[in-house]
Amino acid sequence: MLVGSICLLTACKSSENNTPNTKTEMVTETPVQEVGEPMRKLSFPHSVTSKINQVDNYHGTSVADPYRWLENDTAQVVKEWVAGQNELTFGYLDKIPFRQKIKQRLTKIWNYPKFEAPFKEGNRYYYFKNNGLQNQKVLYVQDGLKGAPAVFLDPNKLSSDGTTAISTVSFSANGEYMAYGTSGGGSDWNEFYVMETASKKKLADSLQWIKFSDAAWFKDGFFYSRYDEPKTGSKMANKNENHKVFYHKVGTAQAEDQLIYEDKNHPNRLFFAQTTEDERFLIISATEGASSINALFYKDLTDEKSAIKPLVDNFEAEYVLVENQGDKLLLRTNKNAPHYQLVLINPEKPQPDNWKVIIPESEDVMDEVSLVNNKLLVTYMRNASSHLLVHDIKGKLLSQVKLPTLGTVTGFRGKKTDKEIFYTFNSFTYPSTIYRYTVATNKSELYRKPQVAVQMEGYETKQIFYTSKDGTKIPMFIVHKKGLTLDGKNPTYLYGYGGFNVSILPSFSISRMLWLENNGVLAIPNIRGGGEFGEDWHKAGMTPNKQNVFDDFIAAAEYLINEKYTSPNRLAIAGGSNGGLLVGAVSNQRPELFKVAIPAVGVMDMLRFHKFTIGWAWVEEYGSSDNPEQFKNLLAISPLHNLKEGVSYPATLVTTADHDDRVVPAHSFKYIATLQEKGAGPNPYLIRVDVNAGHGAGKATSLLINEATDTWSFIYYNMGINPYTGKKV
C-alpha cells in the first residue's frame, strides 16, 4: 500500500541554455544585473533578479522568458539566488512580533499521539504511529489486537534530519516478507528494500530508480515499476520517460530482475502492477497522464506460458481492479457511468456487452469498493462527504454504516478472508478516529480516539451552495466558532484545488485549528475539476474549461464577502500544486478581491510544465503549448505570463522546496521573480524555499510546523491582526 499521498515546442526557435553565464545578452531594461552578481534589493521587501534575452516563438506569438536561467536549480548561481531570497523572506518573517508565539502554540497542539488504522498481515497486526513530534511516523507490529506493540520499522533512524520517509509497504501473501519503499528529502524517487518479518531482519535486496509504484507480490517476489537510471545531475528535473514493469525475486540483485512489460512506442505511459489476492492474475494499469483514465492488461499467473493480454485497450474511462472471483474480475469503472458502477468481467470476453453489472450507478459517486468476507464494502461520496454501504456478493444492498457527522472515511477495506476491518473517520473539527467494523454483524464501534489539546465542541460546520459565474451551483464548507458575528471583519482562509479528479472532502488539520481558535473562518469550496460529483464535474474543469475552476473560486470569495463573513482586507487564499496554479491565476484576475495569497508548490508556468520530470502527464488535464489552440488557452490563464506591470497584487508568500521533482521549483522561482519585478503597491512578494524537502509527501514534522508558523504569521501580519491581542499591527 502506498503511504501518504500523483507533467517540444515545435515552433520554438530559441536556445535552451538554462544556465547563462555573465556573457549572456541582457534585456535592455533598467535596472540590469548580470547573473552571478550579489542580489541588489529594491525598496523592502522586494528584490531584483537578473534577466536574460530569451524569447520563444509559439505558433507565431513571441513570449519572453527572461528568468529561464532559474530552471537550472542545481546551478551555483541559482543556489545563490535561492539563498538571497530566503534571506529576504526570513528577514521579513523574523520581524513579525507574534511569530514565536504561533510556533509555540502549534508545537503544543501538534504534540499528541497520531495512530493509523491497524491492518492484519499473516498472523500479526501492523499500524503506523507518530508519538507526537516525531519527524516521521513509525511502523509497529503486535501479535493479536491485545499483544504488546513493538517497533517494526522506524524511518526516523534512516537519516540524521528526519527527512527520509516510508513511501509504501507491501507484504507477501503469508506475511513472511515485507517490501517497503523510502523516499529522501521529499523526492518522488524511491528505493525499495525487503524485510523478513519474523526476525525484523533487513535483507540485502536494494532496488533503485523507482517512481509511482507499489510492490505487487507473487510467490517469492514482487512486480514493481521503475525508470532507467537518469544521467548524472539530471534526476530532479529531467523528463521521466519509459516506465517499465519488472519482477524482483527476493534475495537477488536488481540487475537480475525480469522485465515484464514496456511500451517503446509510448514512452510517456505509466504502468502500475497489481496482483489479485489469490495471485491468480497480474493486472497492469496503463495511464497516459495524471488523469484517472486508463487501459488494463492482464496475465494468468497460473500459466507460465500465458501472454500479457489487453483487457481494455483504449483510454476512454477509468477501470479499477477490486478483486477476482475465480476466473472473472470485479472492476469499478465510470465507463458509461460518470458516477461509477461495479461490473464483473470475463477476461476472455471483455467487451462491455458481456459485462455483468453488480452494483449499478447511483446519484452518489462510488469512491471505493472492497471484497471482504463475501461482502462488498462500498464508500460513496454524497455532496462531498463519505457514506458507507454494505452489499452482498451479488450487489444487493444490505445495510448502511452510520457515521458521526459530515466527514471523510479512509480504509473501509480489507482482504477476502478478513472477518473485521479498521477504518478512519475525520472531519474539520473531528480528529482522525479509528473504528472497528465486524462484517458478519455489521457492527461498527470505536477503537481508538486521539487526545488533542484543542476544544472541539465550540465550532460549527455548515455546507452551503453558491452560484458561480455561469449559474452552476457549487457547494462550500464553512467552519468557524459558534456565534460568529457576520460583520465583514472576520479573518477568512479560503482553500481550493479544482483538478485531476481530486475530491476535497472534510478533513482534520491541527494546523488549521490554530486559525479557528483565533476567530478565523475556514472556507473550502468543491469547485469544478475535482471528483466530488463524478467525471462530468472533473471534465467541466479540464482544458479547455479550466477558467470554470477560477470562476468558481472567485465566486466563493464573492459569496463570503457578500454574506459578510469577511471583506477583501481580511481574506486569504491558499492552494497547493494544482491549487497553487489556482491561487496564482485568481490573484492575477481579481487582485483587489484578496489581501493575502499563499500559492504552494504551484504549476505557474503553463507553457513549459510538460518539459520537466512528470509534467508531461498533466497535458491531458491542462492541454499543451505544442497545440496552437491549447496554447492560446494556456497563455490566457498561466500565472507567470499574466502578471501586469504596476498592479498591486495581494501580499504573496510563495512556498516551494529544493527537492520537489513533481512540480519543479523553477515554477515558483520564475513566478516570484516576475511578481517582484512587476508588482506595485506596499504588499510584500516573497518566496520561502524549504531545503531537503519535496512536494509534500513524507515531509518532516519539524518542517511542517515551521512552514505553518510562517504561513499563519504572514497572513495575520498582512491582515494587520495580532491573533493574541486582537489589536492592529
What does this structure look like?
The strands form nine sheets. The chain has an eight-stranded mixed sheet, sandwiched between helices. Helix content is 16%, strand content 32%. The chain has ten helices and 39 strands. Among the domains are: 114-157, no CATH class; 365-451; 479-542 and 566-719, Rossmann fold, CATH 3.40.50.1820. It is α+β, with helices and mostly antiparallel strands. Belongs to the peptidase S9A family. One of its GO terms (biological process) is proteolysis. Its EC number is 3.4.21.26. GO terms for molecular function: oligopeptidase activity; serine-type endopeptidase activity. Cleaves peptide bonds on the C-terminal side of prolyl residues within peptides that are up to approximately 30 amino acids long. Has an absolute requirement for an X-Pro bond in the trans configuration immediately preceding the Pro-Y scissible bond.
The CATH architecture designation of one domain is 3-Layer(aba) Sandwich
The H-level CATH homologous superfamily of one domain, spelled out, is Alpha/Beta hydrolase fold, catalytic domain
Shape designation = globular
Number of helices: 10
Give me the Rg, rounded: 26 Å
Largest sheet: 8 strands, mixed
The quaternary organization reads as single chain
Fraction in helix: 10-25%
Uncertain stretches: 4-44
Number of strands: 39
Query: If you average the pLDDT, what whole number results?
Result: 90
Q: Structural class of the secondary elements?
A: alpha+beta
Into which percentage range does the β-strand content fall? 25-35%
CATH class of one domain: Alpha Beta
CATH topology of one domain: Rossmann fold
Strand order of the largest sheet: 32-33-35-34-36-37-38-39
N/C terminus separation: 48 Å
Pfam family, one: Peptidase_S9_N
Organism: Adhaeribacter pallidiroseus
Function: Cleaves peptide bonds on the C-terminal side of prolyl residues within peptides that are up to approximately 30 amino acids long. Has an absolute requirement for an X-Pro bond in the trans configuration immediately preceding the Pro-Y scissible bond.
Enzyme class: hydrolase
